[in-house]
Specification:
The protein has helices spanning about 5-35, 45-60, 75-95, 110-125, 145-155, 170-180, 195-200, 215-220, 225-250, and strands at about 65-70, 100-105, 135-140, 160-165, 185-190, 205-210. By secondary structure, it is an alpha/beta fold. The protein folds into 2 domains: about 5-35 and about 220-250, no CATH class; about 45-220, Rossmann fold (3-Layer(aba) Sandwich), CATH 3.40.50.720. Strand 2 (about 100-105), helix 4 and strand 3 form a beta-alpha-beta unit. Helix 1 packs across helix 9, helix 2 crosses helix 3 and helix 3 packs parallel to helix 4 (about 110-125).
């Protein structure tokens, strides 16, 4: 059982983080809108994403986007939202160049969110009548069964590329090995260390951990996404300073 005083300390820390983050976000947002944007370090995975839809359209083959086994609830919400951000970028490109897009999800809560991303992409291009909800496929809630479903798509439909960004675990090895065997371009990203090992072995480019949460800043470049990335970096610097200060404190005293 959690002791009340411990719970109170955690709550106070969470409130302080929010109270500090909100004004920092508005400050960073104002700077971003004024054109003062940070220099983003190169991430080859995002560069490769930019041309996938066009190459898929030219080849006449589909582009598969797998959003993993997480949903819009629970501990995998953040990583699932990062996958939706990547899907938004790829959907806009796919609709623009009339590429075939196949999206797979495992959690029912992610299904309507992914369908809405595609619907909005078609609506922005004035092609709402072409949109089909069937482009997003609900495979199975079980991770292994989901991976088996994606394997079937990679083997049976032979897409040009497979982008898997979301909540993945050990089951990713089944997906990655299938894509590598069929020489399918693969870009993968997650926050699970076990899955990242398999992604490094099988994918052409990998987004490691927190890099997937920078997708909005890299792919969309909106002031909101850039400001969020700036605030994350500021907190990271602050944590590093606290760690260094703590080490010096215990070393010198």
């Amino acid at each position: 059982m959690i002791e009340p005083d411990v719970l109170g300390i955690e709550s106070v820390i969470a409130i302080l983080i929010v109270l500090i983050s909100v004004p920092l976000f508005f400050y960073a947002h104002a700077r971003a809108r004024a054109g003062h944007r940070p220099r983003l370090r190169p991430l080859p995975a995002f560069d490769q994403l930019s041309g996938l839809s066009g190459r898929a359209a030219e080849s006449g083959r589909a582009l598969h986007v797998g959003l993993g086994t997480g949903g819009i609830s629970g501990p995998d919400t953040a990583v699932s939202l990062a996958g939706l951000t990547v899907l938004t970028h790829l959907a806009d490109q796919a609709v623009a160049c009339e590429a075939c897009l196949v999206v797979t999800v495992a959690d029912p809560t992610l299904l309507p969110a992914a369908q809405e991303v595609l619907r909005q992409a078609y609506a922005r291009r004035g092609k709402s009548d072409v949109f089909s909800p069937a482009q997003v496929r609900l495979l199975a809630p079980d991770p292994t069964a989901y991976a088996a479903g994606v394997m079937g798509i990679l083997e049976g439909e032979n897409p040009l590329a497979s982008v898997t960004v979301g909540a993945f675990g050990d089951e990713y090895l089944l997906i990655g090995e299938t894509g590598a065997k069929r020489e399918i371009e693969q870009v993968a990203g997650t926050d699970d260390p076990a899955a990242l090992t398999f992604m490094h072995l099988t994918a052409d480019e990998t987004l490691i951990g927190e890099e997937i949460f920078a997708a909005g800043a890299y792919l969309q470049g909106t002031p909101q996404s850039v400001a969020g990335l700036m605030v994350q970096d500021w907190w990271r610097y602050l944590v590093v300073l606290f760690i260094i200060a703590g080490v010096l404190w215990h070393t010198l005293l």
